[in-house]
Amino acid sequence: MALIKTISIIVDDREGKSSVPSLLQATDGVRVLVRRLPFGDYLANGRVLIERKTIPDFILSLTTGRLWHQADDLLRFPRQKLMILEGEKAEFSRSRIRRAAVLGSLMALMLKYDIPVLQTADAFETAEMIVCSARYPYRPAGAGTRAWRPDPPADKRAIQIRMIQSVPHIGWKKAKIILDHFGSIHSLCLAGIPEIRSLPGIGTRTAKSIYQAFREDGNP
């Protein structure tokens, strides 16, 4: 059996209210160090600086302008930067912020600041994402002469889940429930609104959105 290579993750001491640090500590091959980071919340293996935000915190930091100060700080880190947005997409709809403002800010972070933004459903997924970022093969910019090659395509199920997640108010957990029930995107396309509505956590409005998203003409 191959030994798991130990990785080091520095956790900012202000992350104490989150359950992510304890989840990281419970992960095999992960050594957690708690200290004050000048910016960011997690430093994965000394090469990926991660800013973690719950959706309410993201909305607050956007409305107060603090988000852009934090983005400027992340740019000071010389290696990879990453923002994790934790929570269900439905939390956006419960806030008073306009959808256009949220989408515009996400585009600015990714295209203007070159900071990837990844969404996770909960603290467990966030911890997994942090560990994955620490273990992902790292190649400094300009190292070697080999041309970049795309990663192998994701497996079919992962692609289908991401397709379902593209529907508003559908996170990873709900997308998995939907795919588990129907078995394929094709079967989902053939389903009616009542069948979709019968799934746990799917309301009438969401069922209609799913139905219209996967019907060619978008009509019942």
Overview of the structural elements:
The protein is an alpha/beta fold and 220 residues long. It has 2 domains: 7-135, Rossmann fold (3-Layer(aba) Sandwich), CATH 3.40.50; 156-214, Orthogonal Bundle (DNA polymerase, domain 1), CATH 1.10.150.20. Helix content is 45%, strand content 15%. The chain contains 11 helices and 6 strands. It has a 6-stranded mixed sheet with strand order 2-1-3-4-5-6. β3 and β4 (48-54) form a beta hairpin. The longest helix is centred in the middle third of the chain and has 14 residues, at 99-112. The chain is globular and about 50 Å long. Mean pLDDT is 83; it is low at 141-151.
Q: What's the structural blueprint in terms of helices and strands?
A:
Elements: E1 7-12, H1 20-25, E2 30-35, E3 42-44, E4 48-54, H2 55-64, H3 66-74, E5 80-86, H4 90-93, H5 99-112, E6 117-120, H6 123-135, H7 156-165, H8 172-182, H9 185-190, H10 193-197, H11 204-214
Parallel strand pairs: 1-2, 4-5, 5-6
Antiparallel strand pairs: 1-3, 3-4
Helix pairs in contact: 7-8
Question: What key phrases describe this protein's structure?
Answer:
single chain; 11 helices; 220 residues; DNA polymerase, domain 1; 45% helix; six-stranded mixed sheet; Rossmann fold; alpha/beta; globular; 2 domains; 15% strand
- Give the low-pLDDT segments: 141-151
Largest sheet: 6 strands, mixed
Q: What's the number of extended β-strand segments?
A: 6
Distance between the termini: 54 Å
Judging by the overall fold, what is the CATH architecture of the largest domain?
A: 3-Layer(aba) Sandwich
| Overall domain count | 2
**Which structural class do you get from the secondary structure elements?**
alpha/beta
User: Strands across the major sheet, in which order?
Assistant: 2-1-3-4-5-6
Tell me, what is the CATH class of the largest domain? Alpha Beta
Shape: globular
Approximate helicity band: 40-55%
- Number of DSSP helices? 11
Radius of gyration: 19 Å
The CATH topology assignment of the largest domain is Rossmann fold
Which whole number gives the mean pLDDT? 83
Order of helices and strands: EHEEEHHEHHEHHHHHH
Strand content: 15-25%
